[in-house]
Structures
1.
Amino acid sequence: MTLSLVLLVIAVALVFEYINGFHDTANSIATVVATKVLSPAQAVLLAACTNLVGALWGTAVAKTIASGLVDSGVVAITPQVLICALLGAVVWDLITWWWGLPSSSSHALVGGLCGAALAAAHDNWDAIIWWQGGDHFWQGKGLLPKVVLPMFSSPLLGFVLGFLIMGAIFAFVSLLSSRSGRLQKLSRPRVLNGFFSKAQIFSASAMGLSHGMNDAQKTMGIIALALVGATSSGALDDLPGWLSFLQIHEDPDRQFTIATWIKIVCAITMAAGTAAGGWRIIRTLGHKLVKLHPVNGFAAETASASVILAASHFGIPVSTTHNISSAIMGVGAAKRFSAIKWTVVERMVWAWLLTIPVTALLAWLMVRALQALNLA
C-alpha cells in the first residue's frame, strides 16, 4: 500500500460523494419544486445548506460502512478494493441518473463494497459480515440487519407514514369544513395552500438534513477505512508532520472515530454536488409519480425525513431515494390508488432491486480484472 494509492481512494470517494450529491438532490427537493413552493435554484440552495449541516451531525452510519459490513479479519481492505467498490457505485449512479431513475446511492455503495471484498477474498463468503452481535437480530451489525432488512422495511414504513399523515390532514380539514365561521374558512384551498407552502419549507429542510446525515456519512466511512488500513500497514509512517492528520488508528474492538476534517471535506463535497442539481430525477419524482400540491409535499417529506433521521441515529444506511419515493406513493394512495402512476413505480422498483447485485457484480469484475493483471 502506498500513499499515492491512499490519496487515489480519497479522490475517487469524493467523486462518488459529488455524484451522490447531484444524483440524490431530487430526493430532498423534488417535492418542493413540484409544488412550486420554491424555485429550482432556491430549492437546490436549501438542499445544499441542509445537506452540509446534516453531514456534520453524527457518525453512526459512517461507522457501519467502515466496520460493520466487511470482516477485515478475513479479507484485507486494500485501496484497490475500495476503488473498485466506489467505481461500481459510480457507474450505476451515472446510468440511473441518465435514465432518470431514482435509484439508491447508498445501496450502490454497499453492493460495490461487498462485491469487491468478495472478489478480494477469492469468493470466501465469510468476508461479508451477515449478522454479528446484539441480543436481537435488528440490534446486531452486518448486511442482513443493517441493509437487507431496512431495504424492505424502511420504504414500507415511509409509505405507511405518508399515508397516515396525509389521511390525518384530510380528516382534520374535513373536520374544519364541517364547522362554521372562522374555522370553516381555514379549510378553504387558498388558506390551506398558503399554510402548507410555508410548512413545506421546514419539511424540505428536514429532508435535506436527513439526507446529509445518512448519505454523506457513507463516504466518510470509506475514507476512514482506507486511512485505517494505510496507518496499520505502515504506509503513512514517513509522512511529514503537517500530514500526520491522515493517520487514523483502530482500537482493539475495530472501532474508530471519524476525524473532523473527513466530515468537513465530505460535507462540502456533497453540498457542491447538491448545488449542481439532478433535474432528470426531479422530473420523475416530482412530476411523473404523483401530482403534488403543497399539502402532499409536506406529508411526504415529513414521513420520509422521520424514517431517515431515526435510521441515522441507529447507524442504518437506508436509502433516501426509497423512502421519499415510497412516502410520495403513500401520500398519493391516501388520495386514491389510481393517483399513482404505476408504470413509473414499476421502473423504479426494478432499479431498486437491481442496485445491490449489479454494483456488486461490477465491483467484483473490476477486482478480478486487477487480479488477472497482478495489480491487486
2.
Amino acid sequence: MKRQPVILFYVQHLLGIGHVFRATRVARELVRGGAVVHMVWGGTRLPKINIDGLEMTWLEPVRVDGADFQNLVKLDGSPVDDALKNARRDSILALFHETRPDMVITEAYPFGRRQMRFELEPLMHAARAASWHPVTVASIRDIMTENRAEKRVRESIAMARDFFDLILVHGDPDLIRIEETLQGADEILHKVRYGGLVTPEPPDLGIAPSIAADVVVSAGGGAVGHALTAAAPQAMQFSRSFPSNWLLIVGPERPQQDTDALAAAAPPGMRVERFVPDLARVLASASVSVSRAGYNTTGDLMRAGTRCVLAPFAGGRETEQLRRAEIFAAKGLATLLRDEEMTPQTLAAAIDRAATLPPMRAGFDLEGASHAADILLECLENPGLLR
C-alpha cells in the first residue's frame, strides 16, 4: 500500500484572519487528495473555521498590538518573551522530527511574518538539513506589501532562493502577476507557480440565506474596520437606492460589547451581527456589498457576483488591499472608497453608484484551493518538476 504523503503546514495570523481561511481551504483539499496535513497554528483559535480532517498543533497564541506589526504580544497584551519564543520553536521542531514530513509549507513567509523568524528560520534550516529532503513551499497571496525596505527585500529573496523549492502564488496571472508587487521577484520567478484564487464553494442559491438584506456592510475580521462600522449606521438615511434593509457585520475579532453598542445605536431597518457563517450566500442575495478589499472578501464577492463598494485597509505600511481595490475599480467591477474619504454621506453615495455596476464576475480562476493542492501533490509525486 502506498504511503500517504505527510505535510507540515505553518500558519500564523497576527492581525487579520483572511489568510487563515485560504490556508485551511488549501489544507483540506490536500487531505481530500490523500495527504496527512499537520497544521501548526500560531494565532488565536477561531471556532468558526473549518479544520475538518486536519491534524492540529496549537501553539501558545501571539498577535501584534497594532497595524504597524512591530510588537508581538500574548493574548493578555503582555510582550512575548524569550521563554515563549523558545517553547514555540521547540514545539515546531519536535513536530517536524516526529512526523518527518514530505513537504513543509509556510504561509506568507519569507515575504511576510518576519516577526516569526525566531521559529521559522530554525524550521527551514531543519528542513534543508533533513536526510529525507522534504519539499519546501512558500504559500503566498497574489498581491504583496509594496515599498519594503531594501534590506528586508534582500533578506526575503535570499531566504526564498536558498531554502524554498516552490513559491506557490494563490492568484490568477490574468488579474495581477506577482512581480508587479513583489520586489526582487525576478531572481526567483523560476520557482513560481500560480494556483488560482482560493475562494469558497459557490453558494447554493436554492438555500435561503440566514439573513436577507439589500446592503451588506462587512468589516472582515473587524480588527481594523472601525471607520466603516462607524459610518454605516448613519449612511443608510442618505442612500437614495436603499433607504432600509441593511446588514452590518462587525467582525469576530471585535469585542462583543462593540457589536452590542453598534446594535443599540443602529437605526430601524439595520441589523447588526458580529459574524455570519453563510456570508457567501448572504452576499449572493444582496444588491450591494460594502467591505474591505482583502483577498478572501473579494473572492467571496466574485463567487457571489455581488455589486460592491471596496473600502480597503491601508494602515501602517499595508498597500495590498488598496492595490486590489484599484484593480477592480479600474476594471469597472467595484466602487473604491478610501478610509480618509469615509463619511456617512460618501458611503451612501458610493453604494448608490455601485448599484449601477455590472455583477462582480470577471472570468478569473476561482478554483485555487483544488488547483493549489493539485500542484503540491504533483510536486511530491514528481520532484523533478521543481528543478
3.
Amino acid sequence: MAEITIAGILRAGAYSPNHIGNDTAIFNGTADELRKRGCQVNIYTEEQFNREGVSENIILNMCRERESIKRLQTLEDEGRLVINSGYGIENCTRERMTRILLAAGIPYPKSLIVNTNENVKPLIENAGFKSCWIKRGDFHAMHKEDVSYVRHADEAQEVLQEYFYRGITRAVINVHLVGDLVKFYGIKGSNFFYWFYPFDRGHSKYGWEQVNGESQGFAFEEKDLKDICTRAAEEVNIEIYGGDCIVAEDGSIQIIDFNDWPSFAPCRNEAAPHIAKAILNIIKNR
C-alpha cells in the first residue's frame, strides 16, 4: 500500500471557461507523476467534494467554488494539509489580490476598488485614468463579461451599472498599461518557471489579448519576473500559480493577474513532474 494517500479534487467546469480540458490534463498529469513516486491519489470532482467530503489528510485541489473554498479552509484549520491553500485560493479573488499585492509593494497597476452602484467618473478622472480595465472584485471570473476593457470614464460607468444589475457588488478598476502582455507559470520552491507571449501563440481565454496586441519583444530580466512572482505567491499564500504581466518598453514589469493553479497548457508535460516534486517536498517537510 502507498505510504502517502492524497485526495485530488478537480475544478468544476464553470470555473474553467474555455479551458476545461487543459485544467483536467495538468491535474491528472500531476496525479500520475505522484503515483509514479509511490503515492496513492484518489480523484474526486468538486461536486463530490462538496456533497460527500473526503477522508484523506492530504488534499490536492483546483477548487474555485465558494462552498469548496470554505470547506478547504475548515479542513486546514482542523490540521489537514491543503495544496493550494483554501485561504490562498480566496486571496486570488480580485479585490483581495489587489489589496495584498499593493500592500506588499509588488509591481501592480494603479487601481481603484469601488462599489458597482456608485458614481465612479470623478474617481477615474481624478486618478488620471484614460483606458482602463474593470474586473469583478468579489470572486473569480467565470464569464468574459467579468473582465471589461473601457476607453473612458463614461463607458466605465455603464459597465459598472451592468455589473450591478448582474448582482456583482464590488469591482476593481485597473489603469490600462501599454506594453507586451506576458503570461507566466510557476511553482513556489521550484526552479520551474515558464513564460510566453499569449497573443503571438494564439493562446486565449476571453480574447482580451488583442487589446495589447502583438508583442514588441521589449527586453526584460526573466529573473526579475520570477522574483516578483515568487514574492506574489508568498504574499497570497499559494504554491502552484500563474498569471499575466505587462512588460513596458523600458523593461519594467507589472503583474496584472495572479491565479491559483492555472492550466500550464503550453508546458504541461514539463510542469507536471516539477509540481509533483514540489508537493512531495511540502508533504515531507510538514
